Amino acid sequence: MAVRDIPLFIDGKPVASRTDQWRDVVNPATQEVVARVPMCPAGEVERAIESARQAFGEWRKTPLNKRMRIMMKLAALIREHTGELAALITEEHGKTLPDAEGEVGRGLEVVEHACSITSLQLGEVAENAASDVDVYTLHQPLGVGAGITAFNFPIMLPCFMFPLAIATGNTFVLKPSEQDPSSTMRLVELAHEAGVPPGVLNVVHGGPEVANQLADDTRIKALSFIGSSRVGALLYERAAKAGKRMQAMMGAKNHCVVMPDANKSQAINSLLGSAFGAAGQRCMANSVVVLVGEARAWLDELVEGARGMRAGPGTQREADLGPLVSPQAKARVEGLIGEGEREGATLELDGRGYQVEGYPEGNFVGPTLFSNVTAEMQIYREEIFGPVLCVVNVASLDEAIAFINANPNGNGTSIFTSSGFVARRFETDIDVGQIGINVPIPVPVAYFSFTGSRGSKLGDLGPNGKQAVAFWTQTKTVTARWFAPENVSGGINSTISLG
After folding, report:
1. Which residues are listed as membrane-spanning (predicted)?
2. CA distances from residue 455 to 229, 433, 473 in whole angstroms, order as listed
3. Angle at Cα 61 formed by Cα 473 and Cα 202, nearest 5°?
């Protein structure tokens, strides 16, 4: 297979980078190099930003219904090309094809939501708020926006950013992950096929230097980031110094509470899928199970369920989880498993050294499960980002809530119970932004906002839903009073007829 060079996308067309620094894009199941991505020099990033700046003046005046039709066309193209996009995700990320197809579907939901822009961007009006005075609001685009995405969802995460950004009248510069950029690039091509004008949506590639340049450039008015807590905090500080608006969705340590009155089979199956799906490489993975009271007796069944899950290349649809994205990711996860043993957690199931027939070079780690995990252990404190499930035992719901609230992160949490009283108590007292009740991964539908909190989020407004529309627009309030003209002959009626 020929190795493809990933282009930039500037002024509505692919552009070959002139850099002398390239990074290999590797199939994580085989270690085959499938593409090369450029580490863009500053001048190429500058060109993309300037293209977006120049396109903004005309694009912001494009009628809402025309922007809506572009989003509708893009949604249709994504549906048509789901298989192609999913195959690119699997080739470069490694997740199974069913997982990849599900990711494309979640991205599509955001584009479908952006199709409602003709009602999403409406302002408010108070007619005759005072004597002959009207007050109304306008929700106008900011200018140039930018987005920096993580590797784990190369279609969904860009869809969390640019569709609503450009639908509200902004132009955009996107920096996808350098680890798996091909599906993102195909998505951008489809956006232009749908009618996005040149300069409205541009793509650059690179590492920290490019991310810093996007954060520092004052022509960019808003920056959206999804990735690690360390990088998000650094970029947030830089963006603030540059006077720009920023949203940073960052690391997590998500908990799932299992009450003794829960539906056992439904809870266990949900836990396994949410912990080990996508090989645990998602910020909403349920990586900690909190067994309450008598539910502790379910541990053996949880272990046996995990033991029955199979890792394999993402192209094998019967595989439950694919490889990790890189050898470095595999080494880190296996190192943390070893650290968990050293700290005294009970290793119920060890996924290290997992072998898949025919794929000896794959970055596979099998399902791994620790019991007797405590809050002081590194495997609890760190986001492992791999197929490792930590089991914690507590005596009561109060203890479970206190345990979760003591964790600095607040991306998501779930509870499995048959009691409405318990569920309501949990949703009221838990200090986490996204809550699932008998739902293992509480990511809301796209017309609701993504509302992670505390250490998992910087910035007041998250992606998707109403918050995203607010993030990508500025509100102007107009207070207006009109008087009859005094210097036009013929009176007011003739003045109106002149109009």
Report:
1. none
2. 8, 11, 25
3. 70
